Amino acid sequence: MRASACTQLNPSGRKRTASAALSSVVRLLSWNENASTASSQEVRDMSFISGSLIYMISHISDVAPESWVMRVAPFGTVREEATRKDALRVSRGRALVRITHASVGVTDALAVRGDYLMQPVPRFVPGYDFIGIIEHLGAADHSRLSVGQRVAGILPRMGAHATRISVAQSLLVPVPDSLDPVIAATAPLDAVTAQFALDALDAKSGSVLVQGAGGAVGAWAVQLAAARNLTVFGTASTRTRAVAESFGARVLDYRNPEWIDALRKMTNGGVAGVIDHTGRRDLQRVVMPEGRIVRIAFEGKQGHQRRATAAGFAAATLRRYAHPAERICSTPMLVMLHRFAYRAALGDILDRLDSGTLTPPQPRSYRFTDYRKAVADVTSTPPGEKSVLVMGH
Ligand SMILES: NC(=O)c1ccc[n+]([C@@H]2O[C@H](COP(=O)([O-])OP(=O)(O)OC[C@H]3O[C@@H](n4cnc5c(N)ncnc54)[C@H](OP(=O)(O)O)[C@@H]3O)[C@@H](O)[C@H]2O)c1
């Protein structure tokens, strides 16, 4: 693993400091026990020794850091950095997890370029979800976890693009032993978002529309909706149409200006619900009055995405009691507020992946050191693939 410029030690400087400290230790050992006769030179030696030892210890810890993180500072720039040790303290109810895999998605790319509402200030570490191994448990809150166990998690705030994190045990969900960790890493944020969005839709029967049905969240939503015996319509361009259709969606091309009218005709007046990531207002026309629109994101122009999200969020909140009603589904917020439901959803997704009843995207692996490329490639990821960081060991 490379060290960033700000944490790398100059080896010759380290040698000089070490030999000076060593000679001072020898002088100290041969020091006259009668302290009252200590010369000012000897007192200076004492301070030098303690200072040097602190210097060496702190730098030794930098050379073998607890964790490497990818830090955004300033926006648009990512630096590999060693974290401070105290950032990894494992107190009661927390765990030290060595991250082995983490997904990289559209939200990370947004955040890196400064367009993500939930990360408005630089110097953060991107990444919401991870797969890892528990290395240490603070006094346990949950006996279901043990050291050495493979776990998955979604964080309520970004920070998963790191080699180790200290994380609340209540965020950790065991990964089935037989599930490939690279496959598992494709799922947490995207699949749980699809699951939560469907729950918020609350459609018991009939048909639903999934916007971006061939995209990362959309493909999970199509499968999960079909598994609930809902008829699934999806929007996609010709680029991602095949992926959406492979999971059973009846696809309309969102680039065709007539697609909303076409869907109204196909469904005799509208679907029971829509999962949407664009924020477009006219979707109200494709939903039956008693149905719902669940917004998982709001589209905006590059550089104006934060404002678009805030405005979309406010508008959707105001339409909470409209007909059709609108709901906002933010997985990080739900993870923060509803731990039990979050763990149940993620555990269920991992079990269904393990049993083969859900089909994951094809993982597209990147080494942790190729992080910038992984982020840059997000917008051109081939349909049906998901980028996964594979950490070194
Ligand atoms: N709420 C949450 O907790 C949460 C969690 C994860 C992600 N998200 C957000 O959800 C959004 C989607 O994420 P993702 O990872 O699924 O992205 P993605 O993989 O890029 O998928 C988005 C899909 O939307 C389609 N699309 C583009 N423009 C469209 C339009 N005008 N109308 C309908 N469909 C359109 C694209 O289809 P084509 O490629 O065919 O053009 C693309 O496949 C992002 O904004 C992301 O930040 C929210």
UniProtKB/TrEMBL annotation:
Pfam families documented for this protein: ADH_N, ADH_zinc_N
Boundaries of every Enoyl reductase (ER) domain copy: 76-389
SMART domains: PKS_ER (SM00829)
GO MF annotation: an example: oxidoreductase activity
UniProt-recorded name of the protein: Enoyl reductase (ER) domain-containing protein
